[in-house]
Write a structure and sequence with these properties.
This protein is mostly helical. It has a single domain, classed as Rossmann fold (3-Layer(aba) Sandwich). The protein binds S-adenosylmethionine.
């Protein structure tokens, strides 16, 4: 692994371990500033549009899930039959604990893995799911 990547993942590890629930509840609160920001920056005008987009999705990837706040949104607004895969190299366990605490972990698989060699299409998907605060690291 490159030094740059080690540093970045190290900072994220620190961030999530110190703030396991950072912005988690606010993200889930429909109508909150963070909730609206995540939807709007991903092209959804309202929760109904988000739900409509997710309606036929059978598998949803949240690559770089952090503490799971967006994974939780995806769980709440997708159909229960959809499988959600939440990946993070440093915080998949924190995401799992958070979703369990909020009763939103059903059908969600949490993986502690590094996402590398991401194709452009997948990058677009990741950008959508990650809440856009930054892109995942990868070649
Ligand atoms: C900016 S945070 C976004 C977290 C979350 N999606 C959100 O919106 O709150 C990016 C997350 O991606 C993870 N990450 C970055 N690059 C990664 C990679 N190549 N493989 C796995 N996880 C990665 C980091 O550990 C961090 O938790």
């Amino acid at each position: 692994m490159e030094d740059r990547m080690i540093d970045t993942l190290g900072s994220f590890k620190d961030k999530w371990e110190k703030n396991k629930r950072l912005a988690f509840e606010e993200t889930l609160r429909e109508g909150s500033e963070i909730f609206n920001w995540i939807l709007q920056r991903n092209g959804f005008e309202n929760p109904e549009g988000f739900k409509r987009y997710l309606r036929n999705k059978k598998r949803i990837l949240d690559a770089g899930c952090g503490n799971g706040r967006v994974t939780a949104l995806l769980r709440r607004y997708s159909q229960m039959s959809a499988e959600i895969v939440a990946i993070d190299f440093v915080s998949s366990q924190i995401a799992k604990e958070n979703l369990e605490a909020f009763g939103l972990s059903r059908g969600v698989v949490f993986l502690q893995k590094i996402c590398l060699k991401i194709s452009q299409n997948l990058k677009n998907l990741i950008s959508l799911l990650s809440g856009g605060s930054s892109s995942p690291i990868g070649p």
